[in-house]
Amino acid sequence: RYIVGHNGRRDPVLRFWENVQKQPGDGCWIWVGTIKRSTGYGQIGVGGRSVLVHRFAYQHLVGPIPPDKPVVRHVVCRNRACVRPDHLEPGTQTENYEDALRDGTATRGERQGSAKLKEPDVREARQLYASGGLSPRALARRYGVSTRTMRDVLAGRRWTHVQEVA
Q1: Residue 61 contacts by C-beta under 8 Å, 6 or more apart in sequence?
Q2: Exposed e or buried b for every residue in 37-53, given b needs 16+ CB within 10 A?
Q3: Within 10 Å of residue 54's Cβ, how many Cβ atoms?
Q4: What does each of the 166 residues of the chain score in pLDDT, given as a tens digit?
Q5: d(CA 80, CA 74)
């Protein structure tokens, strides 16, 4: 006994509720359906597309996501599987990244998959540059990054979390 749309697919709202387990009290509402391995976020098919389920939950239970705050953040529980509307809040990508920095879950520096530098490299490059030993271009070649990247590292616009060792 399912509601089926004109395209033969079951109603996504029904599929949503079939895959939500509500925890007692103020606890999370846990998505037990499909989880995207690469991100750890739940997903649900809607209209032939895969949608992040916490975004679907927010839109279905609260309303439209504001255009100036396009990211749905987990502000109460920080649980990627949670779809409880009062645990979710629209925000900006910057706010979401600041949340991740505060929680220690941000992927920056060596934890970022595409990083060519390591923290000791950054410290060493900054020391070599400060001592007048090598130019940004020479350092970029030495560490296998672009000159632009090395200039940003040396100016503190990248790898900002790496502090100099006294």
Answers
A1: 85
A2: eeeebbbbebeeeeebb
A3: 25
A4: 344 455 567 899 999 999 999 999 999 999 999 999 888 899 999 999 999 999 999 999 999 999 999 999 999 998 999 999 999 999 999 899 889 878 877 666 666 666 789 889 999 999 999 999 799 999 999 999 999 999 999 998 888 878 765 5
A5: 7
Q: Which two tokens stand for residue 86?
A: 């009062």
- Coil, strand or helix: which one is 49? strand
User: Which single residue is written with the structure tokens 């998505």?
Assistant: 31
CA distance 152 to 126: 11
Q: Where are the beta strands (DSSP E) in 26-74?
A: 29-31, 43-46, 49-52, 71-74
CA-wise closest residue to 121 among 113, 111, 132, 110: 110
Q: Does the CA dihedral 156-161-162-166 come out positive or negative?
A: positive
CA distance 56 to 73: 13
